[in-house]
Design a protein that fits this description.
With 580 residues, the chain is of the alpha+beta class. The chain has 16 helices and 16 strands. The chain has a five-stranded antiparallel beta sheet, with helices on both faces. The protein has a five-stranded mixed beta sheet with strand order 11-13-14-16-15. The chain has a four-stranded antiparallel beta sheet with strand order 7-6-9-8. Helix 8 (280-327) packs parallel to helix 9. The chain is elongated and about 175 Å long.
């Protein structure tokens, strides 16, 4: 058992690998999955939806038919009761039961006039005691109903009120007769008016509403058949209804047909039975057709996968070959496919990619060259710093020996600048960069006779971050040389703040303000516009080469005057590898 369990995942992996190794098989499974999902789901939903819709429409039509049948029978019974009331009030008919001269012609005339509405479906008889004296059925022998017969006994008990009964003595394929009787209330003799509605007449009356497959049953309150048509003659539905009601179930539970029951007349039930809208065989046929469509879909998917894989294989092989050459370093590889479809677009995209990648590599080489040139220019601008550093150190000791402090300050500060310049480290702590700025300002204050001052407001935490060296001195130099020209009270403020993962260092002054052209040149990183401002150009170039175009130097001119230079750098807790 463990062996079978452990091999199952391995077998599934093999099956997946088998499919993945063939483009045709992948296409086949994709087409098959989509097609089967659409065919099966769509077919099942269509069959069930169509079945539900037809069934509902059929039910609505059946309910309407059941209502019409019930209404028709109720109308027949209403006309029958009205006819009986008219008969028992007719003076001619009453006089025939009170011993008056027997004028049969007058009685028959009155009887026919009173029963005119019933002539299509019922007959009327007048009984004295149990003997029939008059009948609207011509050529029929006058019969006999014993007075103890249930309907006459009930009619005698309810004088003037119509009573119903089933004449079980009359049988046939349409069932027994319906009898409706009423006793003459104002005669001294036992006179009765009786209406007979045969099953055949009733079925004939309803045949316009019922087709050959529909069943109709008229039953009494005890579910005894009064009338039924041939479709319901087996009695199974009535037995099922009776058993369900006796056992407290819904009357149509377990029925394969649709059954509708309504009350008509006095204690009569109209039962309308129709077969289901869909026979089980029809539903099975629908699903067999769906199965055939599934098999056909498999065949079509296999053929489509074969054709499409053949169409796709050639351009894919061409693309695969070009990519192999590209991986080997042939950046001049191109795909020549004369197509306007997706493969043509893919080939065009591949060609553009190789061209852009080649251009990117060339650009990176050129960028490195620019960085090297910028470093060389900055080093060349230091005029042989090793020699100058040694010379300035000698000047410092001579100045101290001869008590000339300004010369000592100049030589010390310049030596600090040169020491930073000749250092091999490209990244230094912000604290060391600020020390370089202080040395530079000490020299310039002596040069410009203390015409400016400088403040630094940077926390110890930020001073320990690493920055490219010599990025602030050009900013301060710009403020002193260009901003304070003709001023005697210049002020420089250096601040720094951290914004998420960015370090922003601002150099602010109260000078005459930077020009709009210079602001736009810094925003666009325009080398031509920045000519003559070597410091700005080099600093901006170095920062963007190291960190990208999201970082660099920006400038603005506040409304109150002066200039604010902002240097944006990423937060670095240590120098990048290879730059120390």
């Amino acid at each position: 058992m463990n062996s079978g369990t452990s091999s199952s995942p391995g077998q599934r992996m093999k099956n997946k690998a088998f499919v993945k190794l063939s483009f045709k098989r992948q296409l086949f499974w994709i087409f098959l999955s989509v097609t089967l999902a659409l065919v099966v789901l769509g077919g099942v939903l269509t069959i069930q939806g169509f079945q539900a819709r037809i069934t509902r429409d059929h039910e609505i039509a059946d309910e309407e038919t059941a209502r019409v049948i019930s209404s028709e029978i109720s109308e027949m019974l209403r006309l029958s009761e009205r006819t009986l009331k008219n008969i028992i009030k007719d003076e001619t008919v009453i006089s025939a039961f009170e011993g008056a001269e027997d004028n049969q012609q007058s009685v028959y005339t009155a009887l026919y006039e009173a029963s005119a509405d019933l002539r299509g479906f019922a007959s009327v008889e007048l009984y004295e005691g149990g003997d029939c004296r008059y009948s609207t059925v011509s050529g029929r022998a006058l019969g006999h109903l014993p007075e103890h017969y249930s309907i006459l006994r009930e009619a005698s008990r309810k004088k003037g009120e119509a009573v119903y009964a089933v004449n079980s003595a009359v049988t046939g394929q349409h069932g027994p007769e319906i009898l409706i009787a009423v006793k003459f209330p104002e005669t001294q003799s036992s006179g009765y008016a009786v209406i007979r509605i045969s099953g055949a007449d009733l079925e004939d009356r309803l045949k316009g509403f019922i087709n050959a497959r529909d069943g109709f049953i008229l039953a009494n309150s005890r579910f005894r058949t009064v009338c039924e048509n041939r479709a319901a003659s087996d009695g199974q539905d009535l037995t099922l209804i009776r058993d369900n009601l006796l056992n407290g179930r819904d009357y149509n539970e377990g029925a394969t047909d649709n059954i509708y029951i309504s009350e008509v007349g006095h204690e009569l039930l109209c039962i309308y039975i129709t077969p289901p809208a869909f026979e089980p065989s029809a539903v099975r046929t629908g699903y067999r057709i769906l199965g055939a469509m599934v098999v056909l879909s498999v065949v079509i998917c296999l053929a489509a996968a074969s054709v499409i894989s053949g169409i796709v294989a050639k351009p894919l092989n061409t693309l695969s070959s070009a990519m192999r050459h590209f991986r080997k370093g042939d950046f001049d590889t191109k795909i020549e496919i004369a197509r306007d479809d997706e493969f043509g677009q893919l080939a065009t995209g591949f060609n553009k990619m190789t061209s852009q990648l080649k251009a990117t590599i060339n650009e990176r080489v050129e960028t490195q060259k620019r960085l090297n040139r910028a470093r060389i220019e900055m080093m060349q601008a230091q005029l042989n710093p090793h020699f100058l550093y040694n010379t300035l150190d000698t000047i410092k000791w001579v100045a101290k020996a001869n008590q000339v402090p300004e010369v000592a300050t100049l030589s010390t500060s310049l030596a600090g600048l040169l020491r930073t310049g000749i250092s091999a480290d490209q990244f230094i702590r912000l604290a060391d960069e600020l020390e370089t700025v202080r040395n530079y300002c000490d020299i310039q204050r002596i040069r410009f006779d203390d015409s400016f001052d400088m403040e630094i407001h940077i926390s110890k935490e930020l001073e320990n971050l690493y920055v490219p060296k010599l990025i602030l001195q050009p900013m301060v130099e710009n403020s002193i040389i260009h901003g304070f020209e003709g001023m005697s009270h210049g002020h420089i403020s250096i601040d720094a703040s951290r914004e998420e993962e960015d370090l922003k260092i601002t150099v602010s002054d109260n000078g005459r303000g930077i020009s709009d052209d210079m602001i736009r040149a810094l925003e666009k990183d325009d080398p031509e516009a920045l000519k003559g401002h070597l410091g700005f150009t080099n600093v901006n170039t170095i920062i963007r080469i190291y960190f990208g175009k999201d970082y660099g130097v920006g400038a603005e001119r506040p409304e109150g005057g002066g200039t604010v230079i902002t240097v944006t750098l990423p937060v670095l807790y240590e120098a990048p590898k290879g730059e120390t």
